[in-house]
């Protein structure tokens, strides 16, 4: 087993993962309520970029809070899927299969 080669490969993969994480900061995920009154934009790294609230939602604090929770959670779910798919692709592409190593990048 070529340990030096594997360590080099591991470093390379870690670098690719870092690069992918940086790139995911520029991937935007848009989500909105079914009536379009609340819109949220996240990065694929699950960082909120913008929230747009229709004035009609400002009348009803409880409805607005419900909308926020619902829409933000949906956006986080979408962003998480994109994030995991991208990082999995990098890890699978470059990783020599070593038993027990597949949990390292989770």
TrEMBL record:
<comment type="similarity">
    <text>Belongs to the YbaB/EbfC family.</text>
</comment>
<feature type="coiled-coil region">
    <location>
        <begin position="3"/>
        <end position="30"/>
    </location>
</feature>
<keyword id="KW-0175">Coiled coil</keyword>
<dbReference type="GO" id="GO:0043590">
    <property type="term" value="C:bacterial nucleoid"/>
</dbReference>
<dbReference type="InterPro" id="IPR004401">
    <property type="entry name" value="YbaB/EbfC"/>
</dbReference>
<dbReference type="GO" id="GO:0005829">
    <property type="term" value="C:cytosol"/>
</dbReference>
<comment type="function">
    <text>Binds to DNA and alters its conformation. May be involved in regulation of gene expression, nucleoid organization and DNA protection.</text>
</comment>
<comment type="subunit">
    <text>Homodimer.</text>
</comment>
<dbReference type="GO" id="GO:0003677">
    <property type="term" value="F:DNA binding"/>
</dbReference>
<dbReference type="InterPro" id="IPR036894">
    <property type="entry name" value="YbaB-like_sf"/>
</dbReference>
<protein>
    <recommendedName>
        <fullName>Nucleoid-associated protein DFR66_10222</fullName>
    </recommendedName>
</protein>
<dbReference type="Pfam" id="PF02575">
    <property type="entry name" value="YbaB_DNA_bd"/>
</dbReference>
<keyword id="KW-0963">Cytoplasm</keyword>
<keyword id="KW-0238">DNA-binding</keyword>
């Amino acid at each position: 087993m070529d340990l030096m080669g594997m360590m080099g490969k591991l470093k390379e993969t870690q670098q690719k993962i870092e690069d992918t994480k940086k790139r995911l900061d520029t991937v935007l995920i848009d989500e909105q309520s079914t009536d379009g009154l609340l819109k949220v934009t996240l990065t694929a790294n699950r960082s909120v970029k913008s929230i747009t609230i229709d004035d009609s939602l400002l009348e009803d604090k409880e409805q607005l809070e419900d909308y926020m929770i619902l829409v933000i959670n949906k956006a986080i779910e979408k962003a998480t899927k994109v994030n995991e798919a991208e990082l999995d692709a990098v890890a699978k592409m470059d990783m020599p299969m070593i038993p027990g190593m597949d949990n390292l990048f989770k």
